Amino acid sequence: MSDLPALLVVLPILGSLVSLLAGIRWDRSGWYVAAATLSVQVAGAVAFAADGLSGAPGSYAVGDFTIPYGIELLVDGLSATMVVLVAVVALGVLAYARRAGPRSNRFYSTYLLLVTGLTGMSITGDAFNMYVFLEITGLTAYALVASGEGGRSAVAGLKYLLVGTFGASLYLLGVGYAYISTGTLNMADLANELAAVGYASPLVRAAFAFIVVGLFVKVAMFPLHTWQPDAYAGAPDSVSALIASLVSTVSAYALVRIVLTVFTPEFLDAVAFARPLLAATAAVSIVVGSGLAVSQTNIKRMLAYSSVSQFGLVVAALSVTNATALVGLTVHLVGHAVMKGGLFLAAGLVATGVGGRSVADYDGLGSRMPVAAAGFGTLALGMVGVPPAIGFFGKWYIVVGTLEAGAWGLAIVILLSTLLTLAYFARLLERMFFRETPAGAGTGSAADADAAVADGGDGHDAGGDSLADRGVSLGMVAAVLAAALLAVGLGAAVPAYESALAPTVEVLLS
């Protein structure tokens, strides 16, 4: 196998260093360095996915050191999916951030380090290296959240730091217990050694509990979600979109990888508390997250609580552990990343264009910013699960998987969550498209802003300022539309993706 898996981790590190050094001589050069780096990263990720999805799962030994003593990188359909997702979403948000900011070279250097951490988490086959990349991801995410202007972002970043460090410490403690029991850190070797030690061992069970709860913090499962609403609401809009779409998504992937590769489905069958822990956390997160989202008036906080519910679906699928549910889990991770990231970008676009960050501010948005409203509406319907968007297919497979496993209670909870999701998005759709524009509100459209950016025009809204003057750019609008189109287009690719993912699912369940 080529060195591509290792290069995918190294490339954004090099880009980060170049961005930081370039800032000494050329201020604001960081965006161009990051754009070039992520463009190459996308190409490499696609090539990596061609290997991961085209045949039986494999691995790469870093430095050709013998596994399990060396560091192993995993090459399969699941890791390939995450690597492509990280690269594509990071590039899309970067296009938005060029105008929306922050714009310093330090920001873009940290941005690329976050991509490094997320990519490393996606492909590592070593439990300790998962912790290393988890910490890189965490530290850079804390810094990005705190990069906004004012004390609100700093406080949100500090809260995220404290809670996130607690979660990472629990994970590391669990890995320590597993190492004491087995003397190895390689995931595949851990699976064999843990089975040899015996699933009844208190150390093995403690390792599972600490690792899972630690990752629950990172995924933001209820009641360990308290960092998320403040972090999403307090961060700059581009940062909110990036961490909402990728950080919890890759953390959820890490949870799936550890549970299925290290502890295996046999552990879940043998240990009485394992499946109930996953299922109960999932059910509570789905219901409470949706309920809290319904009660919010701030758009970004509403979307944050929505994520608590949506990741509950992922854990629900993991708890039943059959092929159908695992396909749904993976499809849902991809769909949620694209749609939730797009929704945060759309919310930022609206806030920039008309100054609206609350539900009430969306009255008449369809006439004031029709492109932004159309993108937001498409993504919202996708999150509800309206076909042909990818959101429908993820939920469909998960529900069918729970029914195949006889988990009728989880299936009912998931269907209930769909109604609650419709409740909090329907009120926004009604305000955007069926209410009059409030008196005195701006009536310029995103299309007007695009024209102003493209040709220097001065199309003004009712308040006398063009949306372009307020900071709306063609790149910001294009990023939102790309997310909406991708959410719909990916739905058509699900059947082919299911076939490509089948070898990986078979290995994970064997």
TrEMBL record:
Topological relation to the membrane, as annotated: Multi-pass membrane protein
Subcellular location, record wording: Cell membrane
Keyword Zinc assigned: no
TM spans (from-to): 6-24, 31-50, 70-95, 107-124, 130-148, 160-180, 206-227, 239-260, 272-293, 313-335, 341-359, 371-393, 405-426, 474-497
Official protein name in the record: Monovalent cation/H+ antiporter subunit D family protein
Keyword entries, A-Z: Cell membrane, Membrane, Transmembrane, Transmembrane helix
Annotated GO CC locations: plasma membrane
PANTHER family recorded: NA(+)_H(+) ANTIPORTER SUBUNIT D1, NADH DEHYDROGENASE
Origin organism lineage: Archaea, Methanobacteriati, Methanobacteriota, Stenosarchaea group, Halobacteria
Major localisation: membrane
All copies of domain NADH:quinone oxidoreductase/Mrp antiporter transmembrane, residue ranges: 126-421
